[in-house]
């Protein structure tokens, strides 16, 4: 039976792809599977890693057992929330914009997000190059080549959850669905944080945070530009 694959194109850090305005996203029916894509079918081949109780249901990081500096409770919360949102998209239950606009379409081939200490170290270095946490910088930290950055700076008293804030874009702004070539759906110029956090081929994330008396900064990197 034919399997229709949705291509989600959202703003990313790829200036050479101005014709596409962003990155490719896909969703699927199960996490962390290696797939072979023949013309009409999607065949599951393998599961990359197993899970254990130490990681609260998330995947064991491939490059470390524990984060370098990032608080473990925040790490768990960030990764689990990303994967929860991916599951909503996979199941076709992700609301598209404010209430009443329907849901995003289903798709295939999303990989489950896992923590990366290598990306965490890069995020730490990038955040350390800013004025955080003394004040909020006018520009976010620079994301290294081959990554996408996500930045939040706020007053400590706000208590805002950075990951929830980035992902909440999808509830604030409706993504326009443009049918192309029958089964393909293109999303343009909307919700870059949400799109890049749930994109099908990004499967590693690392974050850094710095907090002063008044300001708190969080900077995360994923493994796709």
UniProtKB/TrEMBL annotation:
InterPro entries (alphabetical) = CAP_dom, CAP_sf
Question: Could you say which residues form the signal peptide?
Answer: none
Where does the source fall among the domains of life? Eukaryota
Q: Which residues form the SCP domain?
A: 73-225
- The molecule here is called SCP domain-containing protein
